[in-house]
Amino acid sequence: MVIGDHGLARGAPCFIVPLPCGASLSVKKRILNIDRARSKVNLSRAHRQSEMWKIIFILIFQIAISTLVAWAGPPFLTDDPEAVGYRHWEVYVASQMVKNKGGLSGTAPHFEVDYGLLSNVDLHAILPLVYSNPDEGATHYGFGDIELGVNYRFVQESDHLPMVATFPLVGMPTGNHSKGLGAGHVRAFFPLWLQKSWGPWTTYGGCGYLINPGSENKNYWYAGAVLQRDLSERVTLGGELFYTTPRAVGEGSRTGFNVGGAFQFQRRTPPVILGRARHSRPGSLLDVPGLPSDVRPPGREKGRIPVFHG
User: Fold this and answer.
1) Of 37, 103, 272, 285, which is most buried, counting CB atoms within 10 Å of its CB?
2) Average of pLDDT values for 273-283?
3) How many whole angstroms separate alpha carbon 30 and alpha carbon 11?
4) pLDDT class for 192, splitting at 50, 70, 90?
5) What is the phi/psi pair of residue 26, to 5°?
6) Cα 15 off chain centre by
7) Who contacts 4 (Cβ-Cβ below 8 Å, separation ≥6)?
8) Of 276, 295, 272, nearest to 285 (Cα)?
9) Which has more confidence, 303 or 292?
10) How many C-beta atoms surround the C-beta of residue 253 within 10 A?
Protein backbone atom coordinates (compact mmCIF):
# COMPACT_ATOMS: atom_id res chain seq x y z
CA MET A 1 0.00 0.00 0.00
CA VAL A 2 1.34 3.45 -0.90
CA ILE A 3 1.34 5.66 2.20
CA GLY A 4 2.83 8.68 0.40
CA ASP A 5 -0.35 9.27 -1.64
CA HIS A 6 -2.39 10.12 1.45
CA GLY A 7 -1.56 13.40 3.16
CA LEU A 8 2.26 13.62 2.81
CA ALA A 9 3.76 16.73 1.23
CA ARG A 10 4.40 16.57 -2.48
CA GLY A 11 7.90 15.33 -3.18
CA ALA A 12 8.20 13.57 0.20
CA PRO A 13 9.62 10.00 0.25
CA CYS A 14 7.06 7.33 -0.54
CA PHE A 15 7.23 4.06 1.37
CA ILE A 16 5.61 0.78 0.38
CA VAL A 17 4.80 -1.21 3.47
CA PRO A 18 3.61 -4.79 3.14
CA LEU A 19 0.54 -5.40 5.33
CA PRO A 20 -1.85 -8.27 5.86
CA CYS A 21 -4.89 -8.17 3.60
CA GLY A 22 -7.33 -7.31 6.44
CA ALA A 23 -5.07 -4.59 7.87
CA SER A 24 -4.73 -2.77 4.51
CA LEU A 25 -8.43 -1.79 4.45
CA SER A 26 -8.29 -0.61 8.09
CA VAL A 27 -5.29 1.63 7.41
CA LYS A 28 -6.97 3.10 4.37
CA LYS A 29 -10.04 4.03 6.45
CA ARG A 30 -7.85 5.70 9.06
CA ILE A 31 -6.04 7.69 6.38
CA LEU A 32 -9.35 8.82 4.86
CA ASN A 33 -10.55 9.93 8.30
CA ILE A 34 -7.35 11.94 8.79
CA ASP A 35 -7.82 13.60 5.38
CA ARG A 36 -11.42 14.52 6.23
CA ALA A 37 -10.39 15.97 9.59
CA ARG A 38 -7.70 18.05 7.91
CA SER A 39 -10.21 19.31 5.34
CA LYS A 40 -12.62 20.37 8.10
CA VAL A 41 -9.81 22.20 9.91
CA ASN A 42 -8.81 23.99 6.71
CA LEU A 43 -12.42 24.99 6.02
CA SER A 44 -12.82 26.24 9.58
CA ARG A 45 -9.65 28.32 9.29
CA ALA A 46 -10.76 29.72 5.95
CA HIS A 47 -14.16 30.66 7.43
CA ARG A 48 -12.53 32.42 10.40
CA GLN A 49 -10.17 34.28 8.07
CA SER A 50 -13.09 35.32 5.87
CA GLU A 51 -15.02 36.63 8.89
CA MET A 52 -11.92 38.47 10.13
CA TRP A 53 -11.38 40.20 6.78
CA LYS A 54 -15.04 41.26 6.71
CA ILE A 55 -14.66 42.93 10.11
CA ILE A 56 -11.37 44.57 9.10
CA PHE A 57 -12.98 45.92 5.91
CA ILE A 58 -15.93 47.35 7.86
CA LEU A 59 -13.66 49.04 10.42
CA ILE A 60 -11.41 50.55 7.73
CA PHE A 61 -14.46 51.78 5.86
CA GLN A 62 -15.88 53.38 9.00
CA ILE A 63 -12.63 55.18 9.76
CA ALA A 64 -12.53 56.53 6.21
CA ILE A 65 -16.17 57.59 6.10
CA SER A 66 -16.20 59.08 9.60
CA THR A 67 -14.40 62.19 8.31
CA LEU A 68 -17.64 63.12 6.51
CA VAL A 69 -19.68 63.29 9.72
CA ALA A 70 -19.91 66.71 11.35
CA TRP A 71 -21.09 68.14 14.67
CA ALA A 72 -23.39 67.30 16.32
CA GLY A 73 -23.80 63.75 15.13
CA PRO A 74 -22.14 61.07 17.21
CA PRO A 75 -22.03 60.71 20.14
CA PHE A 76 -25.29 62.65 20.59
CA LEU A 77 -28.50 60.79 19.87
CA THR A 78 -31.21 63.35 20.70
CA ASP A 79 -32.51 65.37 17.75
CA ASP A 80 -33.32 69.08 17.45
CA PRO A 81 -36.03 71.15 15.67
CA GLU A 82 -33.80 72.72 13.00
CA ALA A 83 -35.30 72.61 9.49
CA VAL A 84 -33.70 72.63 6.04
CA GLY A 85 -34.11 75.89 4.09
CA TYR A 86 -36.85 76.19 1.49
CA ARG A 87 -36.00 74.24 -1.70
CA HIS A 88 -32.61 73.31 -0.31
CA TRP A 89 -31.08 69.83 -0.39
CA GLU A 90 -28.81 68.34 2.25
CA VAL A 91 -27.11 64.96 1.82
CA TYR A 92 -25.12 63.28 4.60
CA VAL A 93 -22.93 60.18 4.51
CA ALA A 94 -22.04 58.57 7.82
CA SER A 95 -21.29 55.28 9.54
CA GLN A 96 -21.79 54.01 13.06
CA MET A 97 -20.76 50.92 15.00
CA VAL A 98 -22.06 49.34 18.20
CA LYS A 99 -19.94 46.79 20.13
CA ASN A 100 -21.54 44.86 22.97
CA LYS A 101 -21.65 41.38 24.50
CA GLY A 102 -23.60 40.08 21.52
CA GLY A 103 -21.12 41.18 18.86
CA LEU A 104 -20.77 44.00 16.34
CA SER A 105 -23.48 45.81 14.41
CA GLY A 106 -23.81 49.08 12.58
CA THR A 107 -24.24 50.98 9.34
CA ALA A 108 -21.48 51.13 6.72
CA PRO A 109 -22.53 53.56 5.49
CA HIS A 110 -25.97 55.16 5.71
CA PHE A 111 -27.11 57.98 3.44
CA GLU A 112 -29.38 60.73 4.75
CA VAL A 113 -31.27 63.05 2.38
CA ASP A 114 -33.27 66.12 3.49
CA TYR A 115 -35.22 68.49 1.27
CA GLY A 116 -36.89 71.78 2.23
CA LEU A 117 -40.39 71.39 0.83
CA LEU A 118 -41.63 74.59 2.53
CA SER A 119 -39.99 77.25 4.68
CA ASN A 120 -40.65 75.26 7.87
CA VAL A 121 -41.28 71.79 6.44
CA ASP A 122 -38.69 69.37 5.13
CA LEU A 123 -38.77 65.78 3.93
CA HIS A 124 -36.34 63.24 5.33
CA ALA A 125 -35.02 59.80 4.32
CA ILE A 126 -32.22 57.50 5.50
CA LEU A 127 -31.00 54.68 3.25
CA PRO A 128 -28.72 52.39 5.27
CA LEU A 129 -26.30 49.62 4.41
CA VAL A 130 -26.24 47.48 7.54
CA TYR A 131 -23.95 44.77 8.88
CA SER A 132 -24.53 42.25 11.64
CA ASN A 133 -21.59 40.35 13.13
CA PRO A 134 -22.80 38.39 16.19
CA ASP A 135 -20.37 36.43 18.32
CA GLU A 136 -22.34 33.29 17.53
CA GLY A 137 -23.44 33.07 13.91
CA ALA A 138 -22.50 34.29 10.46
CA THR A 139 -21.73 37.87 9.45
CA HIS A 140 -24.23 39.52 7.12
CA TYR A 141 -24.11 42.79 5.18
CA GLY A 142 -26.83 44.34 3.07
CA PHE A 143 -29.57 46.93 2.72
CA GLY A 144 -31.34 47.79 5.99
CA ASP A 145 -34.66 49.35 6.96
CA ILE A 146 -35.46 52.66 5.25
CA GLU A 147 -36.38 55.58 7.53
CA LEU A 148 -38.83 58.22 6.24
CA GLY A 149 -40.00 61.35 8.02
CA VAL A 150 -41.39 64.89 7.84
CA ASN A 151 -40.03 67.68 10.05
CA TYR A 152 -42.48 70.50 10.79
CA ARG A 153 -41.18 73.52 12.73
CA PHE A 154 -44.23 75.43 13.99
CA VAL A 155 -42.62 77.80 16.54
CA GLN A 156 -39.62 80.01 15.70
CA GLU A 157 -37.04 80.77 18.37
CA SER A 158 -37.29 84.24 19.93
CA ASP A 159 -35.88 86.03 22.98
CA HIS A 160 -38.46 84.36 25.22
CA LEU A 161 -39.63 81.28 23.29
CA PRO A 162 -37.72 78.18 22.16
CA MET A 163 -37.86 76.75 18.67
CA VAL A 164 -40.39 73.89 18.55
CA ALA A 165 -40.94 71.17 15.92
CA THR A 166 -42.41 67.73 15.50
CA PHE A 167 -40.58 65.12 13.46
CA PRO A 168 -42.59 61.89 12.98
CA LEU A 169 -40.60 58.99 11.53
CA VAL A 170 -41.62 55.68 9.96
CA GLY A 171 -39.28 52.69 9.62
CA MET A 172 -40.04 50.50 6.60
CA PRO A 173 -39.09 46.78 6.87
CA THR A 174 -36.84 46.70 3.80
CA GLY A 175 -33.95 44.88 5.52
CA ASN A 176 -33.64 41.09 5.70
CA HIS A 177 -34.91 40.22 9.17
CA SER A 178 -33.73 36.60 9.04
CA LYS A 179 -30.12 37.81 8.55
CA GLY A 180 -30.34 40.43 11.30
CA LEU A 181 -30.43 43.37 8.87
CA GLY A 182 -33.92 44.67 9.67
CA ALA A 183 -36.68 44.70 12.26
CA GLY A 184 -39.17 42.73 10.15
CA HIS A 185 -42.08 45.08 10.80
CA VAL A 186 -43.16 48.71 10.40
CA ARG A 187 -42.28 51.03 13.28
CA ALA A 188 -43.12 54.67 13.98
CA PHE A 189 -41.72 57.42 16.22
CA PHE A 190 -43.67 60.58 17.18
CA PRO A 191 -41.40 63.12 18.93
CA LEU A 192 -41.56 66.79 19.95
CA TRP A 193 -38.25 68.72 19.90
CA LEU A 194 -37.31 72.11 21.38
CA GLN A 195 -34.21 74.29 21.15
CA LYS A 196 -32.99 77.50 22.80
CA SER A 197 -29.71 79.36 22.45
CA TRP A 198 -28.15 82.17 24.45
CA GLY A 199 -24.67 83.46 23.77
CA PRO A 200 -22.27 80.54 23.24
CA TRP A 201 -24.70 78.06 24.87
CA THR A 202 -27.28 75.91 23.07
CA THR A 203 -29.67 73.37 24.54
CA TYR A 204 -32.09 71.12 22.68
CA GLY A 205 -34.11 68.00 23.36
CA GLY A 206 -37.57 66.62 23.85
CA CYS A 207 -39.46 63.35 24.04
CA GLY A 208 -41.37 60.96 21.81
CA TYR A 209 -43.39 57.76 21.70
CA LEU A 210 -42.09 54.81 19.67
CA ILE A 211 -44.50 52.18 18.31
CA ASN A 212 -42.45 48.99 18.41
CA PRO A 213 -44.48 45.93 17.27
CA GLY A 214 -43.26 42.40 17.82
CA SER A 215 -44.08 39.35 19.93
CA GLU A 216 -41.70 40.32 22.76
CA ASN A 217 -41.54 44.07 22.08
CA LYS A 218 -43.31 46.92 23.84
CA ASN A 219 -44.11 50.47 22.75
CA TYR A 220 -41.99 52.90 24.75
CA TRP A 221 -41.13 56.53 25.47
CA TYR A 222 -37.81 58.21 24.75
CA ALA A 223 -36.67 61.51 26.30
CA GLY A 224 -33.34 63.29 25.93
CA ALA A 225 -31.64 66.66 26.41
CA VAL A 226 -28.35 68.11 25.14
CA LEU A 227 -26.35 71.07 26.44
CA GLN A 228 -23.39 72.29 24.42
CA ARG A 229 -21.11 75.31 24.44
CA ASP A 230 -19.01 76.93 21.73
CA LEU A 231 -15.62 77.57 23.31
CA SER A 232 -14.53 79.29 20.09
CA GLU A 233 -15.55 79.41 16.43
CA ARG A 234 -13.98 75.98 15.94
CA VAL A 235 -14.26 74.19 19.30
CA THR A 236 -17.51 72.91 20.86
CA LEU A 237 -18.10 70.73 23.90
CA GLY A 238 -21.36 69.20 25.07
CA GLY A 239 -23.18 66.52 27.01
CA GLU A 240 -26.43 64.57 26.78
CA LEU A 241 -28.78 62.70 29.12
CA PHE A 242 -31.61 60.44 27.95
CA TYR A 243 -34.12 57.90 29.24
CA THR A 244 -36.34 55.14 27.81
CA THR A 245 -39.22 53.23 29.34
CA PRO A 246 -39.19 49.40 28.97
CA ARG A 247 -39.03 48.41 25.29
CA ALA A 248 -39.46 44.64 25.63
CA VAL A 249 -41.13 42.12 27.91
CA GLY A 250 -39.05 41.51 31.01
CA GLU A 251 -36.92 44.66 30.60
CA GLY A 252 -36.81 47.72 32.85
CA SER A 253 -36.43 51.38 32.01
CA ARG A 254 -32.99 52.59 31.00
CA THR A 255 -30.98 55.79 31.24
CA GLY A 256 -27.82 56.92 29.50
CA PHE A 257 -25.44 59.78 28.85
CA ASN A 258 -23.07 60.95 26.16
CA VAL A 259 -20.27 63.51 26.30
CA GLY A 260 -18.32 64.81 23.34
CA GLY A 261 -16.50 67.61 21.63
CA ALA A 262 -15.61 68.81 18.16
CA PHE A 263 -12.73 70.71 16.62
CA GLN A 264 -13.08 72.20 13.13
CA PHE A 265 -9.83 72.95 11.29
CA GLN A 266 -11.34 75.19 8.60
CA ARG A 267 -14.72 76.66 7.76
CA ARG A 268 -17.10 74.36 5.88
CA THR A 269 -14.95 71.32 6.54
CA PRO A 270 -15.95 68.41 8.79
CA PRO A 271 -14.56 68.69 12.33
CA VAL A 272 -12.79 66.03 14.33
CA ILE A 273 -15.25 64.55 16.85
CA LEU A 274 -14.33 62.91 20.13
CA GLY A 275 -16.86 61.40 22.51
CA ARG A 276 -17.61 58.90 25.21
CA ALA A 277 -20.97 57.16 25.39
CA ARG A 278 -22.68 55.04 28.01
CA HIS A 279 -26.26 54.44 27.01
CA SER A 280 -29.20 52.22 26.26
CA ARG A 281 -31.14 52.17 23.03
CA PRO A 282 -32.07 55.70 21.84
CA GLY A 283 -35.37 56.72 20.34
CA SER A 284 -34.76 55.69 16.76
CA LEU A 285 -36.13 53.48 14.05
CA LEU A 286 -32.97 52.02 12.52
CA ASP A 287 -31.78 48.92 14.32
CA VAL A 288 -30.14 45.55 13.94
CA PRO A 289 -32.59 43.26 15.76
CA GLY A 290 -30.26 40.29 15.76
CA LEU A 291 -28.17 41.90 18.51
CA PRO A 292 -29.15 43.11 21.99
CA SER A 293 -28.35 46.75 21.21
CA ASP A 294 -29.70 48.72 18.28
CA VAL A 295 -27.99 51.17 15.99
CA ARG A 296 -29.08 54.75 15.63
CA PRO A 297 -27.34 56.81 12.96
CA PRO A 298 -26.87 60.50 13.72
CA GLY A 299 -29.96 62.68 13.35
CA ARG A 300 -30.22 66.11 11.78
CA GLU A 301 -28.60 68.10 14.55
CA LYS A 302 -27.74 71.77 14.72
CA GLY A 303 -24.55 72.79 12.98
CA ARG A 304 -23.95 69.60 11.00
CA ILE A 305 -22.17 70.07 7.70
CA PRO A 306 -23.66 68.12 4.78
CA VAL A 307 -21.64 66.39 2.10
CA PHE A 308 -23.90 68.12 -0.40
CA HIS A 309 -25.93 71.27 0.25
CA GLY A 310 -27.97 73.03 -2.41
Assistant:
1) 285
2) 46
3) 22
4) very high
5) -65, -45
6) 59
7) 12, 13, 14, 15
8) 295
9) 303
10) 12
Torsion of CA 55, 57, 59, 63, to 10 degrees: 180
pLDDT class of 15 with cuts at 50, 70, 90? very low
| pTM for this predicted structure | 0.67
Average pLDDT of the segment spanning 212-232: 93
How large is the average pLDDT for residues 112-135?
94
DSSP string, the chain: -BSTTSSSPTT----B----HHHHHHHHHHHHHHHHHHHHHHHHHHHHHHHHHHHHHHHHHHHHHGGG--TTSTT--------PPTT-EEEEEEEEEEEETTEEEEEEEEEEEEEEEETTEEEEEEEEEEEEEESSS--EEEE--EEEEEEEEEE---SSS-EEEE--EEEE--S-GGGTSS-SS-EEEEEEEEEEEETTEEEEEEEEEEE--SSSB--EEEEEEEEEEESSSSEEEEEEEEEE---BTT---EEEEEEEEEE-SSTTSPPEEEEEEE----S-S---TTSSS--------TT---SEE-
More confident site: 19 or 206: 206
Higher pLDDT, 51 or 262: 262
Those residues whose C-beta lies under 8 Å from the C-beta of residue 56, and which sit 6 or more positions away, are: none
Architecture of domain 60-309: Beta Barrel (2.40)
Q: Are 134 and 149 in contact (CB under 8 A)?
A: no
pLDDT by residue (tens digit) across 65-89?
Answer: 443 333 334 457 788 899 888 999 9
Q: Report how far residue 210's alpha carbon sits from residue 92's, in angstroms, rounded to the nearest whole number.
A: 24
Q: How many Å apart are CA 170 and CA 172, to the nearest integer?
A: 6
Residues 201 and 197: their CA atoms lie apart, in Å, by 6
Residue 59 identity: L
Residue 237 predicted with pLDDT over 70 = yes
